[in-house]
Amino acid sequence: MPTILCSKELLDKAFKKASKIQKKGFDNVDKNKKTAISKISVAGDIISSNLAKYVKAFPSFSKTSQFEMELIDVILGIDKLKKSLGALNWCSAKALELEKVYLGKVKKAQNSEEISRLRREFYGRLSSLVDQIDQDLKFVAFARDKLKELPEIDPTVPTVVIAGFPNVGKSQLVERISTARPKIAPYPFTTQGIGIGHFVVGRKRYQVVDTPGLLDRKLEERNKIELQAILALKHLADVIVFLIDPSETSGYGMKDQLALLESIKTNFAGIPIIEIENKSDIVKIESPRMKISALTGDGIDDLLGLIIEMLDRTRKANNSEPIAI
Ligand SMILES: Nc1nc2c(ncn2[C@@H]2O[C@H](COP(=O)(O)OP(=O)(O)OP(=O)(O)O)[C@@H](O)[C@H]2O)c(=O)[nH]1
Ligand SMILES: [Mg+2]
Questions:
Q1: Nearest CA to ligand 1 atom 15
Q2: Choosing a second label site near 304 at 20 to 30 A (CA), which of 101, 163, 244, 319?
Q3: Are 187 and 149 in contact (CB under 8 A)?
Q4: Per-residue confidence at 323, pLDDT binned at 50, 70, 90?
Q5: Would you tell me how many other CB atoms lie within 10 Å of the CB of residue 160?
Q6: Class of domain 153-319
Q7: Cα-based angle 20, 22, 28 (whole degrees, multiple of 5)
Q8: What is the residue with the minimal CA distance to atom 11 of ligand 1?
Q9: Which atom of ligand 1 is nearest to the CA of 173?
């Protein structure tokens, strides 16, 4: 994505380029006319093409998944972003319009004074036009920076999301099943960042997402923004692994953990949830759940087999579907 300039910077860029232009002519008026025409064309074109480039630089929009859309909405507000991009588009078209009008006027001008007046008038009107969208330019620049942080998560790759209370071993599990070290993406709605790992089976790539601070508390206790961010995961998660720590060394009792599980089941209805007991090296309780130790690796192969089987079965078709905004 290009650097997005504010209105003053953009105008400076255009006028600076235009100021360097000097044309030749068969007499003074002709020389001034040709120079003014060229200056007006260059200044207008720079403004118009840069604004169009900024709008186009939001490539994700033509193939934005629901997950990304919801994240953008949480972080920036979709309507606000649409409005600002619309303003840039509008200004881009207006600049060309204005350019055309003044080129016509200059062509008809009779003397150097008139040519010079028209040129200045065009600069003035172009300036106030671009100044009008300064707030939009600043917002789009801000949006660009925010969105640059997002692409770590690829919504088109089959994804398993790991949930559970703090300290139950989520990060340890993500690390254990990822081929490389999981990356931490600094998503603005969680202070801890979201951990993203990958694993490859055959020629297929899968994604595993750690959710510290997100899926570790009852959703009923969340504020609106948090909830919206959490529920964005609905569009990302093909399968959820809910990690339980029956050793309770995490500091959370079984009762609370099972209550959180119920809350997640309710809020993520429709997404298959695998209930797993971790820390089998410390304790194994009587239950039908699969038992693993993310620390020693015990049971991990079976779990991975189950995850892959379920991902292959439940892979959402809509995840890769484009949504135009
Ligand atoms: N004994 C044992 N310890 C484990 C196991 N898995 C994780 N731990 C330990 O439990 C602690 C917490 O593990 P993490 O993976 O950081 O837990 P988490 O769920 O990611 O915690 P948050 O990021 O705070 O939500 C660490 O000290 C791990 O070493 C396990 O299978 N057995
Ligand atoms: Mg963690």
A1: 169
A2: 319
A3: yes
A4: very low
A5: 25
A6: alpha beta
A7: 150
A8: 167
A9: 15
